[in-house]
């Protein structure tokens, strides 16, 4: 783990050598293209969409040091900073399903609101429970650097 | 010189605007994408401005404002053109909206970066992460099932609510497979993100979710998808990394867990 931290630090030190933005975009495009070839291989009953495969591929490439942070982080961080804006068309997409809302709208929105809160709170506290088990039952280290 | 009467003016302008927006029969194939891009940007920027002068009032979150205002503007335009909102949305907004929507692909992939930045946490807690997401999802499914029943959704509605923790592209086909309506599921996935984006800070505080940074990250990624991950990054690097891994793992867990859950509850 120490070696990994060290690797991350040296990579940050080389920040001035960040790859040109077109190369960074090229890496993203290549990963997306390969992912779009892999995605249809999954059966219809077990769908795994292109961006999910792409996320895994980029993570594996980073973890195996084939791709360095400086090759992708400038474009990647930029894309992440845009995520709320990129979601606007999805939000406006609801204009096409206004008739669904007319039928059962209020009930659906209430269930979705509750479901969102349930997912957040239940997953967070389940995790806290498992970490508590790790610490108090299995007596394993739970410290992380901030 | 041709002089036009008031109504002829209207007709000419109407035709011009219709052509430009791609809503007339002639312009429909052209599908002008610029209107959709322009409208998305304008409503989002207006939301940012409103959020700033509203001193961060949660309902003024730019994504929420952009969504509501965008739909409202499409509704007004549709009225003016004498069509319904869904038709106008498809012909005028969608070509441009799809271009912006496409960029969610590289943006989703980009979450591998915050994930890798905290690879130390991933390596140390991978077992807890996977177990928490599986157990957390199963508990949530029971709660969502009974809440849906209590509020009075029919079986189609309940089935549509089950896969919403997954990313839209996974949730929709699963909803269809277990007898739900995939359009309703897509709406759920979108609203998850909008709700987490608008209420996330408040929910995290109110439910003291952030007392465990790993749990906060996994919860935000599960409930709010990639938008939740962006929220989690604001809390810290561990939270951001955990939310990114949650987006991937929970989608696969939904793939595996939701169909048998649905048949166990008698939905299919």
Comma- or semicolon-separated keywords:
heterodimer; A: mainly alpha; 2 domains; B: 268 residues; mainly alpha; CidB/LrgB (chain B); membrane (chain B); Antiholin-like protein LrgB (chain B); transmembrane (chain B); transmembrane helix (chain B)
Explain what this protein looks like in three dimensions.
The complex is a heterodimer of chains A (146) and B (268). Chain A is built from seven helices and no strands. Chain A has 146 residues and is an all-alpha fold. Chain B is an all-alpha fold and 268 residues long. Chain B is built from 13 helices and no strands. The longest helix of chain B is centred in the middle third of the chain and has 33 residues, at 119-151. Chain B is globular. The termini of chain B are far apart. Classes of the chains: A mainly alpha (146), B mainly alpha (268). Chain B: It is found in: Membrane. Chain B: The chain crosses the membrane at residues 25-46, 58-81, 93-113, 125-148, 168-199, 241-262. Chain B: It holds the Pfam family LrgB.
In short:
Chain B: It holds the Pfam family LrgB. The complex is a heterodimer of chains A (146) and B (268). Chain A is mostly helical and 146 residues long.
Write the layout of secondary structure elements.
The complex is a heterodimer of chains A (146) and B (268).
Chain A: H1 2-13, H2 21-38, H3 50-63, H4 69-81, H5 83-86, H6 88-92, H7 98-136
Helix pairs in contact in A: 2-3, 2-4
Chain B: H1 6-21, H2 25-28, H3 34-53, H4 62-81, H5 85-102, H6 104-109, H7 112-117, H8 119-151, H9 155-161, H10 168-177, H11 182-206, H12 213-235, H13 237-264
Largest sheet of chain A: none
Number of strands of chain B: 0
What is the global morphology of chain A? extended
How would you describe the oligomerization state of the chains in this entry?
A: heterodimer
Sheet/helix structural class of chain A: mainly alpha
Q: For the report, how would you describe the main beta sheet of chain B? A: none
Write down the overall mean pLDDT of chain A.
Answer: 87
What share of the residues of chain B lie within helices?
over 70%
Alpha-carbon Rg of chain B, integer: 22 Å
Q: How many helical stretches of chain A? A: 7
Distance between the termini of chain A: 15 Å
